[in-house]
Amino acid sequence: MASPVDDLAISPEELRAALASHDLPALVMRLARERSWGALILLFGHAASPEGAARLGLAELEAAAHAFELALDGLPVPKNARAAPADELRPARIAAAEALLARGAHPPLTELERRAARRAAVLLTAAGDHARAAGAHEELGDDASAAAAWGALGELDRMEAAHARDEARDRALRATADARRRLDVLLASGERRAALALALALPARDAGGPLRQLTARLETELVRARGVTLRVRGAGTSLRVAAVPARLGRDPLAEVALRDPGVSRHHAAIGADAAGLFAGLYVEDAGSRGGVRIAGARAAGPFALRGEGELGLGPSTSFRFQATADGRAVVLQCLSGLDRGLVVLVGHDPIDLTLAVPGARGLALELAVGGARLVRRPDLPVRVGGHLVGPGCDLLHGDLIEVLGDAPLALEVA
């Protein structure tokens, strides 16, 4: 009985030379045109061996298998009995497929491994080895092709199971596509917190590179504190906006963080007592070293912030304050100390920015929910981060807020 190497049209030396010169696809094309099936079986068998793996990369092996398929497609239809029948091609196709499968991970991980596995599945199908072709397709997650392979074998239960997986995958892909469309709408309208929640809810397998980057950016840059600093572009002034209750001190996590060394880390607090003694906002010492001064006199307890006055923290920092008539907010202008020039706006949500920035009419901030959310008057066009936003917009550190119209204004979120 003749062995596969009886028609060998290549010497071992020529095979080694082809591997060394990285010209294996050209050699495969030549052998296929010459119908040297035994030589091809030997060649692909050698490629699957440890020695072949040491000399031949998967990329070149995949290219050689592709060249084999192209050569077979280009062969003329046999016209006589001496031409190689299909059953002689079967071992060569299987040898090429086995070489590809032997060199990749299971399941395939990289795109090259997936491409090689797909080519192996096609070769196995052409060779009539539908069971192994179905297994290769299932590893790739190509359940539609796996169903066709199981159907060719008459394995109806497995075919139906593959169809069911394919339909479930299609439903998941449609759901992911819908979620990404909703994500785009949320981002465009300024609903960044809702967009982040939606992105985090997507399965990890659906979170591609851009989506992972977006999620990381939102998690890192969303303003989560109950205070935010805005810089008025062109004016050189900074505004700290905070929701009550607001802590004042050198603690970086305080709603109103100050730099002056004469201020304690937890120096004072501005609170609200809408129905009690103060009927508005008040300030009280938080156990500081330098105390709280009102009009130069040290405050012995909570002090109601009404009308206008002067508030001192420690020996060198002083503010001029002005409370709103309804007692819902107070504006403090730092007059002395290391934070001189800082403007602070503390109040109940929504905090009207016009109280500290006259050109911000129609803009307010909501901060009590643990983050900064810009809200606008319905007829006021506002662009944040280069996009027109809806009635509200969750702010990110680094955002540029642009008020459009007759009195343009630009605010930068620190």
Structure characterization notes:
- By secondary structure, the chain is α+β, with helices and mostly antiparallel strands.
- It has 12 helices and 21 strands.
- It has helices at 12-21, 24-33, 37-48, 50-55, 58-74, 86-103, 111-126, 130-140, 143-153, 156-189, 192-201, 209-221; strands at 227-232, 237-243, 246-249, 256-257, 268-273, 280-285, 292-294, 297-298, 303-304, 308-313, 317-323, 329-336, 343-347, 351-352, 363-366, 373-376, 382-384, 387-388, 392-394, 400-403, 409-413.
- The strands form 3 sheets. The chain has a 12-stranded mixed sheet, with no helix packed on it.
- Strand 11 and strand 12 form a beta hairpin.
- It is elongated and about 105 Å long.
- The termini are far apart.
- The relative contact order is 0.07.
Key descriptive features of the protein:
alpha+beta; five-stranded mixed beta sheet; 21 strands; disordered N terminus
Structural class: alpha+beta
Strand arrangement within the widest β-sheet reads 8-7-10-11-12-13-2-1-21-20-17-18
Residue-averaged pLDDT, rounded? 90
Helix-residue proportion: 40-55%
Strand content: 15-25%
Radius of gyration: 37 Å
Rounded to the nearest angstrom, the distance between the terminal CA atoms is 83 Å
Estimate the global geometry from the Cα principal axes: elongated
Q: Which regions are unreliable across 5 or more consecutive residues at pLDDT < 50? A: 1-8
User: Major sheet, described briefly?
Assistant: 12 strands, mixed
For this structure, the quaternary state is: single chain
Number of strands: 21
Please, how many helices?
Answer: 12
